[in-house]
Automatic annotation (TrEMBL):
Keywords: Chromatin regulator, Coiled coil, DNA-binding, Metal-binding, Nucleus, Transferase, Ubl conjugation pathway, Zinc, Zinc-finger. This is RING-type E3 ubiquitin transferase. InterPro entries: PUA-like_sf, RING-HC_ORTHRUS_rpt1, SRA-YDG_sf, SRA_YDG, UHRF1/2-like, Zinc_finger_PHD-type_CS, Znf-RING_euk, Znf_C3HC4_RING-type. One of its GO terms (biological process) is negative regulation of gene expression via chromosomal CpG island methylation. Residues 467-495, 641-696 are annotated as: Disordered. Residues 137-176, 509-567 form the RING-type domain. Residues 666-684 have a biased composition (Basic and acidic residues). Its EC number is 2.3.2.27. It comes from Castanea mollissima (Chinese chestnut). Pathway: Protein modification; protein ubiquitination. One of its GO terms (cellular component) is nucleus. The keyword Glycoprotein does not apply. PROSITE patterns: YDG, ZF_PHD_1, ZF_RING_1, ZF_RING_2. Transmembrane segments: none annotated.
DNA sequence: GGGCCCGCAGGG
DNA sequence: CCCTGCGGGCCC
């Protein structure tokens, strides 16, 4: 084979690797793409003009631009050259923000992520992806496809490598070290890398089809005392907050008052007239669970509580009784959570049906009034206030103010404690139902036929359960599916961990069977620890170094220097074995990740929260409770009412501004878009039998 | 003060 | 897994 001329650049010290001289500044030429310095006089094709030197591409870069290497598995042409052009186009686009540019660049580099945002994945999934990033081919910048490893420890796609060789190159594209003729003739696939990439790809695909509920789920006991914003949340404060800890032991679907036995923190239960800053706090004391919805209830179980927040203009508040409007009938398209405009008829379904069930059964319904109800004299000036137990005496449908049918409920108070607005020292007595004029035009009227579950006991002189309350279907202190979601999360974490551990196991040394330290990839594409492989030939090393030894001895030694895995001669490789740094980095990343996850799971077990800071909101209330315990029940109620008036005056609503806080909201719009990963799958399939294919 | 936005949580 | 929702923050 005729000797070919290869262009070589200058090394890190500025010495030309071809002539071994150090070119002067005038003799040196820098590539516009890769910024590598080259010696002009040693170039086989020097630039024609001075203008050319300014926009000069080195032989390697111009080669890649002129002969694009097909992107493996993607089914389309790309190259580092066109990639660079595309990146430049993004960088110079003034209409894009920095964040948008970063996003476009990422999309460009991860073609398989599709046109939309990549599906949001958990941190551990992201880490798996970043580990994969370390295994990109230096030619095509894509994840290694049928990886081949040079003895100098660099990895390339088989296609890219053979193309490079086909162009007459016999040096490593990364370090310029010579490629053994045998490898140039028949490059072998590094099966360890294949397995590692395949497992990681499968993990990535699994992550991509995960649900949008992949964010961490926190058990009640681990939640902080106040609502907190999660990592996911774009807005600060309570705008998109997660709920704080539930302080009471009542299950979510508990009917009736929150009693002292359900209040381990204060041992007093929730008293009429208690107030809270917001819906989250109200929820934490078990009074009204949903943090937006006005009705808490289940259609087949009944409604436990309602909130009067002025959200429905048909509401009519008379203190001891009020007319409540059902939910629904409003257009919530466009990602709205509420809407003041009615646009279609309400039906007795979902929470409306739950309230109707409570009406039929005569269940006690907790009532909360909000300062947002501006038309009522009975609403608190500030905050939210618990006003006690009411019963739904009747319900019906009528045409609302906006002309659409609404569900209507007559609530009548039936609590043993006096209402916050009354000067009475005793609670309610059974009272005749008010006359409701709109009942004359009402449809679908429902009245209770059987005796109510919650009723007044004349003998005992108080309201109480006359029938056993409906048995709870929920666990105390837990959301409906929180337990399930938690199990799911733990399962996914364990799965991810096992993937990483599996990956690491794949990186074990043939000799010591342990995870490789400083991995060496032989020309026969087998991987060993540097120390293991060198140790295996320790005796020969000494002889081999003595090159003046006789021919017979050397040959005998060379025969012994066989790959422990496939018995190929690796004597030459052992003369100057180079660590496969990319593989080493993958191994180290995996080890770091596993260690980190172990640490995190330990911390989680210890109940540590980074972002959400636990704030003890209860001290004041506990002191209050202790004080109250010394006095009679009625006295404490009066005190409570007085305190309510004071706190109402003191309360100020925070209304700060944060500049540019919503500037990045568009980035989150694609959060539910699932990565199709089609090219990925194709690539995985092609990887099924890489060795066999490569030998064809 | 109106309007828009969107994470969270529960229902079904 | 999709739908619903009488919140809360921030911009205009």
């Amino acid at each position: 084979m005729a000797q070919q001329v290869y262009d070589l650049p200058c090394d890190g010290e500025g010495t030309c690797m071809a002539c071994k001289n150090k070119p002067t500044a005038e003799e040196s030429l820098t590539c516009k793409t890769c910024a590598t310095p080259w010696h002009i006089t040693c170039l086989s094709v020097p630039p024609n003009s001075l203008a050319d030197t300014l926009q000069w591409d080195c032989p390697d870069c111009s080669l890649l631009s002129a002969n694009p290497v097909p992107v493996s598995g993607a089914g389309e042409s790309s190259s580092s050259g066109s990639l660079i052009t595309a990146i430049c186009a993004i960088e110079t686009d003034s209409s894009l923000t920095e964040r948008e540019k970063a996003k476009r660049r990422q999309q460009l580099l991860c073609k398989d992520a599709g046109p939309s945002d990549r599906k949001e994945v958990t941190n551990s999934d992201d880490n798996l992806l970043s580990i994969l990033d370390g295994l990109n081919c230096s030619f095509c910048m894509q994840l290694l496809e049928r990886p081949v490893s040079t003895p100098c420890g660099h990895n390339f796609c088989l296609k890219c490598f053979t193309k490079w060789i086909g162009q007459g190159k016999r040096n490593c594209a990364n370090c310029r070290k010579e490629i053994p003729p045998k490898m140039a003739r028949l490059p072998l696939i590094n099966s360890t890398l294949v397995t590692v990439i395949r497992i990681a790809k499968m993990a990535k695909a699994n992550a991509a089809v995960g649900t949008s509920r992949d964010y961490p789920v926190i058990r009640n006991e681990d939640r902080p005392d106040k609502a907190f914003s999660t990592e996911r949340s774009v807005k600060s404060g309570n705008a998109n907050a997660a709920s704080g800890k539930i302080f009471v032991t009542t299950p979510m679907d508990h009917f009736g008052p929150i009693l002292p036995e359900n209040d381990p923190m204060r041992n007093q239960g929730v008293l009429v007239g208690e107030t809270w800053e917001n819906r989250f706090e109200c929820r934490q004391w078990g009074v009204h669970n949903p943090h937006i919805s006005g009705i808490a209830g289940q259609s087949k179980h009944g409604a436990q509580s309602v909130t009067l927040s002025g959200g429905y203009e048909d509401d009519e508040d008379h203190g001891e009784w009020f007319l409540y409007t059902g939910s629904g009938g409003r257009d919530l398209s466009g990602n709205k959570r509420t809407n003041k405009e009615h646009s279609f008829d309400q039906q007795f379904e979902n929470s409306n049906e739950a309230l109707r069930l409570s009406c039929r059964m005569g269940y006690p319904v907790r009532v909360v009034r909000s300062h947002k109800e501006k038309r009522s004299s009975y609403a608190p000036e500030k905050r939210l206030r618990y006003d006690g137990i009411y019963r739904v005496e009747k319900c019906w449908r009528k045409t609302g103010i906006k002309g659409f049918k609404v569900c209507r409920y007559l609530f009548v108070r039936c609590d043993n404690a006096p209402a916050p607005w009354t000067s009475d020292v005793h609670g309610d007595r059974p009272r005749p139902l008010p006359i409701i004029e709109e009942l004359n035009v009402a449809i679908d009227i429902t009245e209770r036929m059987e005796s109510p579950s919650w009723d007044y006991d004349e003998e005992k002189g108080c309201w109480m359960w006359k029938k056993p309350p409906p048995s709870s279907r929920k666990r105390a202190n837990y959301g409906r599916s929180e337990e399930g979601k938690r199990t799911k999360k733990v399962k996914r974490q364990a799965q991810n961990k096992s993937i990483k551990e599996k990956l690491l196991k794949e990186c074990s040394c043939y000799i010591c069977k342990k995870v490789m330290t400083s991995p060496l990839t032989t020309p026969c594409a087998h991987n060993f620890c540097k120390s293991c492989l060198e140790g295996a030939f320790a005796g020969q090393n000494f002889v081999r170094q003595r090159t003046c030894e006789g021919r017979r001895t050397l040959r005998a030694q060379k025969n012994i220097m066989k790959c422990p895995s496939c018995s190929n001669d690796i004597a030459e490789f052992l003369q100057n074995p180079q660590v496969n740094r990319e593989l080493m980095e993958v191994i180290e990343s995996l080890q770091r990740e596993i260690a980190k996850e172990n640490k995190e799971s330990k911390e989680e077990a210890d109940g540590i929260h980074e972002k959400a800071k636990g704030v003890d909101v209860s001290n004041e209330i506990v002191e209050e409770a202790q004080e109250n315990n010394l006095k009679g029940q009625i006295e404490s109620e009066i005190q409570k009412t007085e305190k309510l008036k004071k706190t109402s005056g003191k309360c100020t609503q925070k209304r700060g501004r944060k500049k540019g806080s919503t500037s990045c909201k568009q980035l989150d719009d694609g959060k539910n878009v699932v990565d199709p990963s089609e090219p990925e799958k194709a690539a995985s399939e092609e990887l099924q039998d890489p060795v066999a294919e490569s030998k064809v």
